[in-house]
Design brief:
Strand order of the largest sheet: 8-9-10-5-11-12
CATH architecture of the largest domain: 3-Layer(aba) Sandwich
Distance between the termini: 32 Å
Order of helices and strands: HEEEEEHEEEHHHEHEHEEHEHEEHEH
Structural class: alpha/beta
Shape: globular
CATH class of the largest domain: Alpha Beta
CATH topology of the largest domain: Rossmann fold
Strand content: 25-35%
Radius of gyration: 24 Å
CATH superfamily of the largest domain: P-loop containing nucleotide triphosphate hydrolases
Length: about 325
């Protein structure tokens, strides 16, 4: 029998004052059952600290694991062992309580379909001290500032899941909850919706709230989240700033498009064996897996010296998409 952990406080005063989420060696109740192997926890020895006011993406190679981690983070699901502290409050492993300081968005059916967007937001903020007219005007102006004025009078029943999710996120920021958990990893937002999320992010920052998003969309991570955590087969293999993630795992230096790509590749292999070269559709992708700094100029000078005049050379800006692909490839090879 699992022994219930008592309510705990964090001993470290600085962490107590600044942590929104603190997990230490946490494992899930849920297990994978594999023929010929012992059951293993879906989430294994998770340790992560998210500070107040930060915006994090939780991504990885398995949508179920990502959703489960955020469910535990929101106190929706129990955990097997380890430690979980949310907004300075230690969480017991078994007792599930809807916490007033956490707003959880786990599906897009939470909004009332018999209202339009403005009506629903008015309903959600009914306890406001403002008079109805002033409150309606304020919410309408806020929707316009977010770039969502076009859906203000749209019935919620006709919205796409992505727009419903944005409406629920606005409800979350109006709730004044300290920790917002946005657990919809399957959604893919278009450009207008991402722009709205960027504007909502600014509001969240000004309110000093904390936002944690589960997503498989690398562009969303790049444009919205300052920090990233990557789950691979139930283990947290990276956590840090999104910039650190991009530069650590995106190994692509540049791409070269040339009609004689195979000849150019052979020349570069002989001259610069430090790099790895792959060809697809007459485009050479140059990667660097060494500890040395990427030297795009060195590669360009070698191309010119060899007498080639490529149709196009593009220096890679280091993207979350490439980083995600590379980290999965790296850990797949280690399995």
């Amino acid at each position: 029998m699992i022994k219930e952990q008592p309510f705990t406080e964090i001993s470290d005063q600085n962490r107590k004052l600044s942590s929104a989420v603190y997990m230490e060696k946490l494992s899930s109740v849920e297990h994978y059952l594999e023929i010929g192997h012992n059951p293993r926890p879906v989430l294994q020895s998770i340790s992560i600290e998210i500070m107040k006011g930060e915006i994090w993406a939780i991504t990885g190679n398995n949508k179920y694991e990502m959703k489960l981690l955020l469910e535990i983070m929101a106190n929706i699901k129990p955990y097997y062992n380890g430690r979980c502290v949310l907004m300075e409050r230690g969480m017991m492993r078994h007792k599930r309580v809807i916490l007033p300081h956490i707003f959880y968005i786990g599906n897009t059916n939470m909004a009332y379909n018999n209202m339009n967007v403005l009506e629903y937001l008015m309903f959600s903020t009914a306890n406001s001290s403002s008079d109805v007219v002033s409150q309606q005007e304020r919410i309408f102006e806020q929707l316009i500032s977010f770039g969502l004025g076009n859906i203000s009078l749209t019935p919620i029943s006709t919205l796409t899941p992505e727009y419903k999710a944005l409406v629920l996120l606005i409800v979350a920021i109006y709730s004044l909850s300290q920790l917002l958990v946005f657990n919809l990893p399957a959604l893919v937002f278009n450009e207008a919706q991402v722009t709205a999320l960027i504007n909502i992010k600014k509001y969240i920052r000004s309110s000093e709230q904390t936002l944690v998003i589960s997503t498989l969309d690398p562009l969303l991570i790049e444009r919205i989240c300052d920090h990233t955590a990557f789950l691979y087969n139930g283990k947290l293999i990276f956590q840090g700033t999104t910039e650190e993630f991009r530069y650590k795992y995106d190994r692509i230096v540049l791409t070269i498009k040339d009609k004689n790509a195979q000849n150019l590749k052979e020349r570069l292999i002989n001259a610069l064996p430090l790099y790895k070269y792959d060809i697809q559709d007459q485009v050479i992708t140059v990667r660097n897996y060494s500890a040395d700094n990427n030297n795009a100029r060195q590669i360009y000078e070698e191309v010119v010296a060899a007498g080639f005049a490529p149709d196009k050379i593009r220096i890679n800006p280091k993207t979350v998409k490439n980083a995600c692909e590379e980290i999965i490839k790296q850990y797949d090879l280690q399995e």
